[in-house]
Amino acid sequence: MSQLSSIETEERMIAAMLYDYHGCIAKSGLLLPTHFSIRKNMIIFEAICSAAATGDVSDMICISEKSEGTISFYELMEISDRFIPTINFVEIDFKTLDDYRKRRELCQILSKRLPTIDQNTMPEDFMAEIQNSFSELQDISPSIKLSLYEQSNIWADELTNRYDGKHTPGLITGYYNLDDMTGGLVPGNLIIIGARPGVGKTSMALNIARNVVKSDSPVGFISLEMTSLELIEKLITMEGKIDGSVLKRSEIDKSVFSNAISLKSKIEQWPLFISDADRNILESLIHRTRMLVSRYKIKLLVIDYLQLIVSGKLTENRNNEISTITRALKQLAQKEKIPIILLSQLNRASNKSKPQLSGLKDSGAIEQDANIVILLHANYEKQPNVLGAYVAKNRSGRTGPFKLTFLRENGLIANYAEEK
Length: 420
Hints:
Rossmann fold; DNAb Helicase, Chain A; alpha/beta; nine-stranded mixed sheet; 2 domains; 9 strands; 15 helices
């Protein structure tokens, strides 16, 4: 047995397929030719699959013929006779073969990529590219096979918990109208918060993150626009309802200073992990997200904001690039089983009226990939403390407008009813 293969395990899997092909397939995951490290075993595997397609899988003469004479009837008999006729080892053998397959593919990735390193290679970009290549190795382990009866029972249990008030589908944002329409932030969902610059999309996302961490659910916040220190100061002003402009002065009142420092001791206990990413390349952001999930077990990710991300690959135009980015982030949310809030700018036409889905800047793919789209707008001259919000798209529920109270001096966003 080498570090990259186990010939004995490969041949035992072939023997199991020769003994009971259909039983073997039912117990294993998706077997591929690449699960076999030597050409002979690959050919036998493909010949067995070919014979199975014509209903001749139990006929070793037919299997030999399907190999175009490469594998003789006697070679098949020799493998079959060497092992106990059973499929009892199939599940553990499949896992072993899949582990070896992944190791071989990892070696191939590294052998191709390592020679390209030079003095112009950015370490973080290289690490991100390698990490993403590793993560994209096809996961073909056996999935849990549930009948419709079993799946519907799971659904009924979840529905009962919701009925009893024990569980909601997603993380609660703390905004009653939004949670009522969406059921919270559901794992695997991509949620877009769109607004024109200065309306309050970063404040909205930071308030949601603040509300979620207060329920002891870890949150990751990747900022491509503001530094971590700027975001921490915003959290301080929100929590203490401190006028943010006061903390910008060169001379700060003693009581305000003392209050801010005491609030620092409070918020530093929150499971909020802020990354003011200096690399805006998509692969780097995906790598950073996987690190946050693995190391800190985050349950929600916020990215601020979409239009600052680049794919790092040549594309025909910016619309195609945005499409690549939103599709990748949607897949990331599904794979890591977390909701991702992605902030997005709206185009200039959105200044003239209440924003629409068509106002999402750069690409219609933003709307297509999103599970939920929330658009923000404000008229600070007529209603200085009111932030208008509109759930413009919701794949699993209602859409519609609602109001929030926005105290712009400290960044706090609250339920509108609380301020009436």
